[in-house]
Design a protein that fits this description.
Strand content: 15-25%
Oligomer: single chain
Number of domains: 2
Shape: elongated
Number of helices: 19
Strand order of the largest sheet: 2-3-11-5-9-8
């Protein structure tokens, strides 16, 4: 009982120990907040990358694609069996996009991707990322709404407002088709918008109904430039700036025709996106497909899961989180050295009291338990308060961010950079328990040497000079 009473007394009266408690508290709270935010960002990023890439991707090794898409898809279904839920063929090529904004011609390098919108939506979250100018969801379709032509074509307005003769009507219809082409395109949101400094809304450089011109290389040994005009029907906004600032989706068959790759699944394609059923071992499926394709067409294909394709990016995020945890863990380590210094000072200061306790019959184990219990109590108070404070901070982090932004006069978390409406957080109970456990271990570990030193004091020697 005397051990508990002394621990409680020291905790209440030794105010210098508050420095150690505050250090432990700040270290635990900071690590909980950082891990929750980093885990939230990683989870959001993984979810969006997964939605863009589908579960497994089979890619041809040639820029010209492969001509037997139907056979490849049949083989994938045969090998995958019940594990395969949906397939979608795609054609992609680097290119140049240009459009008119007022009197200025804007030109940008882009990645042009030919897809069938319905099948592409079935293998990922393609449909969820399609939006209009006001952020409203748009269907996965390249169809050009007739109202777009009436709103964006001067010739179409003349047809609607007047009653031209047959010859004039044919000429006006031709001009209307040139101003608003029949083929739709879905550019990345960032490719056709601009965010002015300090503004709350983006400026659309090429809104829906605008005409964009895409230039890209043909296939074959004698590569030639090909170009065609498309009408913007919606925008691709995944929240990943790397893709939103480079992707342009166009109809699969149109891109195949323009590049000289045939037509549909009978033509050449560059990749096949695969959606699997829940619970499928993606690595095992990728290995099975890789072996089957190698046996049929050696050196013709590359098979990767979405995680393998984004391995460097995901590894970089994991490495960053690990380094931050190591650096922040030093805060708690500093608190441990503080506990060690304070306890060593207490042992020297309380030499007479320790001698009296030993003379009254306190055992070596009892004296050691006093200081170990004191270290444990400091760790419990510091880590407990830090855990509560960290979890409360995480729960209200967006309100805190808004208050700091108003106080500083600038956005602390700029959603135009990160493409998240709010700071994403993900609290992992195991991580929280590990952080609190490590803090307790350091607090107790730092008190071991002073406790052992106090326990070894001989009562006669401790009282000799008193």
């Amino acid at each position: 009982m005397y051990m508990l009473l002394l621990c409680w007394r020291y905790l209440r009266t030794r105010y210098i120990a508050l420095a150690s408690i505050v250090s432990v508290m700040l270290g635990v709270a900071t690590m909980i907040v950082v891990n929750a935010v980093m885990a939230g960002f990683a989870d959001k990023m993984r979810d969006r990358l997964h939605g863009i890439l589908s579960d497994v991707v089979v890619e041809g090794t040639s820029f010209d694609g492969f001509p037997y898409a139907n056979e490849v898809m049949a083989l994938i279904r045969s090998v995958g069996g019940d594990r395969v839920e949906a397939l979608a063929a795609t054609v992609d090529t680097p290119g140049i996009m240009s459009f008119q904004y007022g009197s200025q011609t804007i030109t940008k390098p882009v990645q042009i991707i030919g897809v069938d919108p319905a099948s592409r939506a079935a293998v990922g979250q393609f449909a969820q990322y399609l939006v209009g100018e006001r952020g409203e969801p748009r269907p996965p379709s390249f169809e050009v709404d007739p109202t777009l032509r009436e709103l964006n074509s001067h010739a179409a307005k003349l047809i609607h407002e007047s009653d031209p003769d047959a010859e004039t009507l044919a000429i006006l219809q031709q001009h209307a088709q040139q101003e608003v082409p029949d083929h739709g395109a879905i550019p990345g949101y960032a490719t056709v918008t601009h965010h002015p400094p300090g503004a709350t809304e983006d400026i659309f450089l090429a809104p829906t109904g605008s005409r964009i011109i895409l230039t890209f290389p043909s296939t074959g040994q004698a590569i030639e430039p090909r170009r065609d005009s498309f009408t913007v029907v919606s925008f691709f906004k995944s929240g990943m700036s790397e893709y939103d600032a480079s992707f342009v989706f166009v109809p699969l068959e149109r891109l195949q025709y323009l590049r000289g790759m045939g037509n549909g699944h009978e033509g050449r394609v560059n990749a096949i996106q695969i959606k699997t059923r829940p619970g499928t071992d993606l690595d095992r499926l990728a290995l099975d497909l890789s072996r089957a394709l190698w046996d049929r067409w050696p050196r013709g294909f590359s098979v990767q899961t979405w995680e393998q394709k984004q391995g460097p990016l995901l590894s970089a995020v994991a490495l960053e989180q690990s380094i931050l945890n190591i650096l922040l863990f030093f805060i708690i380590a500093v608190a441990g050295f503080g506990i060690l210094a304070i306890f060593s000072m207490i042992v020297v200061e309380k030499t007479r009291d320790i001698g009296i306790l030993r003379a009254l019959g306190a055992s070596t184990r009892g004296v050691r338990a006093i200081f170990l219990g004191y270290g444990l109590s400091l760790g419990l108070v510091g880590s407990g308060v830090g855990m509560i404070g960290g979890l409360l901070f995480v729960a209200h982090i967006n309100a805190i961010e808004a208050a700091l932004s108003r106080l500083l006069g600038r956005k602390v978390f700029d959603d135009t950079i990160y493409y998240f409406n709010e700071i994403p957080v993900l609290v992992d109970p195991k991580t929280v328990a590990l952080i609190v456990g490590a803090a307790l271990l350091i607090a107790v570990g730092a008190s071991v040497w002073p406790a052992h030193r106090a326990a070894r004091l001989h009562p006669v020697r401790a009282l000799r000079y008193e």
